[in-house]
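ZP: hey, is the serine complex queued? I don't see it on the tracker
AM: it wasn't, my bad. submitting now with these inputs:
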Amino acid sequence: MKTSEIRERYLKFFIAKKHKVVAPSPLVLENDPTTLFTSSGMQQLVPYLKGEKHPEGKRLVDSQPSIRMQDLDEVADNRHYTFFEMLGNWSLGDYFKAEQLPWVWEFFTKELELDPKRLYVSVFEGYEDVPKDTESFEIWKKIGVPESHIFFYGADKNWWSRAGAPDKMPAGEIGGPDSEIFYEFDTPHDPNFGKFCHPNCDCGRFLEIGNSVFMQYKKLENGKLEELPQKNVDFGGGLERIAAAVNDDPDTYHIDLFAEVVRKIGEEVGVSYNTDSEKNKSFRIIADHLRAAVNLLAEGVVPSNKLQGYALRRLIRRAMFHFHLLGSGISGSAVSFVAEDYRNHYGNVHKNWEFVKENLEVEATRFESALKRGLAKLTHAVSENLEIDGKFAFDLYQTEGFPLELTMEILGQNGMEFSQLQKNTFEAEFEKHKENSRSMSAGIFRGGLESKSDETITRLHTATHLLHAALREILGEHVGQKGSHITSDRLRFDFSHPNKLTQKEIEGVEGLINEKIKANLPVTFAVMSLERAIKEGALHFFAEKYGSEVKVYTIGDKENWFSKEVCGGPHVRNTSEIGGVKIIKQEKIGSGVIRVYAALR
Ligand code: SER
């Protein structure tokens, strides 16, 4: 079955159970500097899981493209990705376990016709004050799951929060016990089943295909867990993995989404997939990383040395490096040729293909030259018999983005070994470097939890609407939002326009925004159908992704407004709360796309 059909069947199944389809969030959340990327469907729903009313009601469903950079090193196996799509459904204080578990079971066994004998489930064993989940255990038994297929695990496996187990959750974070479903492949396996191998074992026999989180708790400052005002369900199932289960093939890179890209990689390097396990790793890394890269580029992220841009740069470079490991350097245009098939699967990639292609090729070409320079330095060192130690390898990594594996590979080809000691020196340097980036991410996370910065973000968010409206007034109606991102100290806004702004235009835009701030305009919202919102002249971004009911924010008088946009909020109540705005920088990031940065002043 094709992934698109599974996605469609899933949405229909839950629509029939009175769920409303919500628009998935972009990969880079506009107003959430606490994380680099959207990594699960619940992320945009946190306020609603905590009790706020959602405009679409209490039962929601969607399919959420997600990025998990923490899985980067696992991608080489047959079931991990940096980019994946998560089928999700939610009860916001509505139904609970007794409805959710039978529905998920029905979806897998009736709608997708997975053999119930191949399904296993796991249930929460209990942790401190949170009791063992005997309720789910009884429900699974009632559904007909034999006890031999039900496994209890502790908080390390059967508890979900964005930070992991309860002891890892920062104050304010929400989470709860969960119940997972696993598909068993008919692969050779350990005969000591149950003793050494079980659903959560990593040997490849089992694949987790769904997780129902009973999102019920909030972590308090004193370290205790407090019950949320409502009992929620947060279900997530990886679309690619579900497709692999439907195919009854443990290699998730065999599904339709990857087939053409994997074939084209083979064509470029002259080797086909499944030649040997080392080569398979490279195929998967290339297919995965390019998929993540094109989806990020489609949202206007461009390679850089900071935050999302840096993650994107690493993805593209790692993909390029693996082309080399497969035995072939590759030109920028060949990389975009390989990645182009993803246009057929992701509307956003299709729509923004010219921008994606251009930026992918620029970065790939840049790395090709860095690789050449790195190779020259290395070959020179080898021929001169210079000492190639861990420090040398790390410098090469830092200056040219040259991974250790590649250095070792080339040394190997010259009959040279890289000793354990040298590897350790490299690792030590690398750890130092990683520590720096880790504290950078931790800093972002902490920054986002401070209420002071929450306020700043809200002000910057309303300022973004003012900026959008001001740009349209000064430059013309062709200006449309292409992307937006806010951190605790600035906003960034990408829009369609052929050239950088002149000084006069910048002054005009800035002047108009500040005039509207000084005018003490009210900021109000109303919930309405998307159709009506469009009729009222509301600007909308990612239009095809919205649900039927949307929130529309208006700045100014109801009749004589300055800005009207479809948006989830949050916003200040009056423009005067913004204080003042200054445009601090602008750049052209692609043909027809300009990026401006602005800060509060
Ligand atoms: N939030 C859970 C997960 O990401 C289920 O949706 O696995």
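AM: back. The mean pLDDT is 89.
ZP: great, adding it to the tracker
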